[in-house]
Amino acid sequence: MSDRTTQSESVASRLDEIFWRGLFDIHLDPLAFIGADFRIIRANLALASALDCAAEELSGRFCFEVFHEDTCAVESCPHTQLLADGCAHACEIQLDRLGGCYWVSVTPVFDDSGLLVGCLHIARNVTAYKTLETELRAARDEVEVRAEARARELKEHLQFEQLLVSLALNLGRSLSYAELIALIRSGVSDIGATGGFGRCAFWAVKGDCAQVMARYEDPSHLLPPQACDVTRETEGWLFEALNGSGMSESADDDVERCAVSMFPLWAGDTAYALVAERRRSHSSTRMALSVERLRLLCHVMGDALRRQAGVLEAQQLREELARLDQVARLGHLSAALAHELNQPLAATLCNAQAATRLLNQNPPDVVEVRSALEDIVSSARRAGDVMRQTRALFKGGERVTQPVDPQALASGVLKLLRDDIALAGAEVVRKTGSQVHSVLGDIVQLQQVLINLIRNALDAVRSMPAGQRVITVSVEENASGSVVLSVKDTGKGIAAGEEESIFIPFRTDKPDGLGMGLPICRQIVKHHGGTIRAQRVPEGGTCLVVTLPAGLHASQN
User: Which CATH topology does 151-309 take?
Assistant: First the structure.
């Protein structure tokens, strides 16, 4: 090999050494070549800067002294492990001398003969990453806690929504007053327990007094005791809630209260208020019942109570109507008895007096006496007939008729059945003529006919989808001047050929029906000189048509 070639190789080798040494020194992470005897052969500027010394000062020093501040090799050190097995190692180490946590990796270095002579030691500062990791872990834990709390809140809210829907459906059914109160008490208890409340109470407020209708209490909340009957003087805040749409207040720093009310419809009517209370320290979630939800629950229960009161009022009105009808009949009967019995009794008295005078004659006029006695017998029989007729009338025989306004009749019946119509979800359409004559008849019997027809129509449309439950009540006059009352529904209708069979007694398609409604209606209409017939509606449904002879008076629409 020539001297020129040797010189070139020497220059190239030196250039390589300069390049790698420069690259070694400018590396941002602390680097060091460490020999198999644990002594530092070379350290870069980053390591020297981290240790606040010159790079030359580190050469020849033991690595465990520089990095671990120890007097002997550390078994957990990657360099110690590399010398033991000749393999690369890496781990995370807290190096206080370098000022933080470092990811340390060591790579073995071999000479040309394959002998392990040391390692390349790289230390990367991961303190910022560890801090960020800790912060992210804390943030994740906080998010998880918040998510769990929110999930609990949503679960409570979902449970409340389910309870509210179930309660509304149950309260929408036809219930007795006792069943209604029991259902409200159960609903208040369920809502109170589900919402985590210490107290949930439903109040009936009338005037300046309020009374609890349903209450839930959780003794663990240690809320102040409260009476079942209060006045404005004792619990003024409850009555203040009736003056606004809702109220939230804290009796102290730990007690949370939400109160809403359902206003009275008229003076003297009963108002309703729902109050939920709890101690914040007993729950980690927010109030499950907002003012809007609490008001909705209050209105559901209040509407049910008012609807029940309306049903009772309607029942009382019907009973009063029946009682007044009986009183009216008795009045008519009394007048008829006074009028009809007056003549035969007067005739009997006159004939008896005449017979007495004839018997006192000398000689007695036997022929005239016999005639007077026959007249007495005839008058007595007539009086007996009057008694039998009035008794039959009292028992429902002959009816006293009067002019009846068909339009007022329809209006009164629809008003009487307004709750039944609402419960069936039906829409009633009224059609009336501009001028309809009155009819002569018994208003109670005619009311019963129209009530029966409308209730049959409600039963027919009850199975139809919402929006298709339409009942049309018409009051008109036909070409011959007769009054026509018709009730048409949008139900499934009757089969062809059954237009007459539905009037046969005891024939019915209702599970709980007796099959006597339409036959009785036909009998009443026939008694009033009219007719009743059933018609199939082409687009679906049935129309019952009642035709009655008109009276003398006409009503204006």
Answer: Beta-Lactamase (3.30.450)
